[in-house]
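Final paragraph of the annual report: two paired records, presented back to back.
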Amino acid sequence: MSEQLSPRAKYIQEKGFLSDETMFNRYKEKQAEFEKQPEISLVGHSLFDMWMDIEGYQPVLAGKSTANLGMSGVSMFQYLDIIVRPNRIKHLGKTVFIFLGVNDILKELEYSPKQVTEWLTEILAGLKKVAPNSKYHLLEVTPTLNNANVTNEQIRELNAYFKQNCPEGLTFIETYQAFSDENQDLKAELTTDGVHFTKAGYDVLVGLLTPYC
């Protein structure tokens, strides 16, 4: 008899979202990044992960060595459950940027801004066990453009909750307005597909992160 899927796993499969197994395989593909001992660590989803695909990408931010621990498609819960709880991160830089949350709106049945923030709090606690003296920063979720899966209203709701309830020890970095047009959508010139960034988009991101490095 085949193993019965949990309601969560069945939902992810039916919707065609990236599974826990796929996330674990992406982690294995990025072992070299996870084994680095950098000055800066990027913990997050595709907007960090796909930065590595941009022509001219360098593993350096503000002149400091950087480990890109982003995994495309990952939710806050998946990062917690697959990476942080099993203690797969052994090294973190003195500066850590966290860019997670938007994929939970899509793929986690238990999603709510409150629940995501609770997962975030647990992630932060796990990371602090690895690097208790590092400085931790949470990036605001950026807008999308013509995205049928997640609305910018949902994103703004999550951002407002993050800002109001940011866990102690996390510095909240506002990003939404820097990426948005007059309609509060992602600026067309900054995106390849309505979600992910062009090189110009990453230039904006670098400008936002650099003061915290």
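The closing record of the year follows.
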Amino acid sequence: MTANRVQRLSRSLAIFVPLLCALLTPAGAVGQEPIVPLRLSFSDPGARSMGFGGAFVALADDATAAFANPAGLVQLAKPEVSMEGRHWDYSTSYAKGGRVEGQPSGFGIDTRVGLETARSENTITGLSFLSVAHPLGKGSLAFFRHELANFAFSGETQGFFGGGTNCCQNRFFDQRMATDVNFVSYGLSGAYRITERLAVGLGAIYHETSLTSTAEVFLPDEDPELGLLAPTSYFAERSYLSQHLFADDTDWSFTGGFLLRLSNSWRIGGVYRQGLEAGVTVETTAGQANDLGVSPGTLVNRITGIPVQFPWVLGLGFAYRAPDGGLTVTFQWDHFQYSTIVESPGLEDVTVDDTDELHLGAEHVFLRTTPVVAVRAGAWFDPDHQVRSTGDDPFARALQPRGDNEMHYSAGLGVALQNLQVDVAVDFADPVNTVSLSAIFGF
């Protein structure tokens, strides 16, 4: 490829701001579009709940009810302590490079038709839930700690191209990204039995939000023949700028639930959880290859106080338990108001759908064994809630596409002694596999 032909390539550099790890561009920033997804988990705590496929709101019959449905705390006959550890194995798909439009020129790294995807593989293990619950006559109180989200991502791109093949080509310069998300909640829940059949519960939750996302933009390697079609080797001297998003914030929210026993075998339960809000800050620093008249690493732009409202959740479930207690079948519908994520900061040209999750699970208890053993299985439908572009920019449309619906399948095993119950469960899906181990102590 001749040097003159390279000079006809577009030299414009688009800069992105990684908001909420989906890299949503706030007002005032120069736009380049999102690459990194953000994965939140709003599943109920406990391996027993996971074994049911997350359909637990109409059962809520142990100390994990402090979060899942506080009304269920009235079912406790004695004080309980619940602990859970989880292991997450994330496999997060993202766009790595390729053509967002047009045909490849065949020079340099511009040889791929369509987009190339890659996966970020990350594993996390931690204490995901802890609660102490105590019955008090017709009521109960419980304190809990819960990890609402624990997620990590890392990746790098290698050449996004658009435009024609002979002139005026555009390149989305490459990025090296890393994201860590940890939402921890502390709550106090209480329940009261209004009648023999109806109980209600309320809870106050204190949230600690820790979110960091760093993306560093690099220029392609210096090559007099290939120019913008050269590969990116991520040399420090080719760093153009870095953008760092972080949220270290706290907030309060409330939750409420009910549990209604329709008959000895049928129950219905519901819960509402208010979404937390966090203030986000975005900082931009100069790189070695960016001649802004300042030293590399100097802060050149800072946007603070971007309000982000995370989804509120509404759940409703039914449960059937056989008269002998050997079989339990549960179903749960959850509605998530994901649109608040993009509406609260006033973002334009992006959207995300509100979704409805469907959960189904069953348990068979071997009542004649000592100790008592239970086996569980479940499945749940996780519809697409990926932030996507609604604008005309081809890079935005390619890098912010509609996501995929996912099916999760779960299985679990429980062993119950006189004062101790131990449960283990697994949940399998394409983007994440989860293993849970929990124990409930009664005293």
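Residues 1-34 have pLDDT under 50 and may be disordered. This concludes the annual technical report; the extension proposal builds directly on these records.
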